[in-house]
Specification:
Layout lengths: L5 H32 L6 H29 L8
Helix pairs in contact: 1-2
């Protein structure tokens, strides 16, 4: 049985945070922004900004999942 080191445990906890907390929050933000972008009662400027925010949030969620996968693989993500 492999010995669990403190560093390995910390990487696992960090990976869980990125995958189970940060990514779902970004997904929720994207969903909210998409609803705002589709709301015809909002101004064109607000809808445009919301659409950009949704795109950014989706990209962030993908990046958070990448970070989690990289940490679980035992590597350090770029820029970490």
């Amino acid at each position: 049985m492999d010995r669990i080191t403190r560093a390995r445990m910390n990487r696992a906890c960090e990976a869980d945070y990125w995958a189970n907390t940060a990514a779902p929050r970004a997904d929720a933000a994207a969903a909210s922004a998409e609803r705002t972008a589709a709301d015809p009662t909002k101004s064109a400027h607000v809808r445009t900004c919301a659409a950009r925010a949704a795109t950014s949030a989706r990209e962030n969620a993908a990046e958070y999942r990448y970070i989690a996968d990289t940490l679980r693989a035992g590597e350090i993500p770029d820029g970490y």
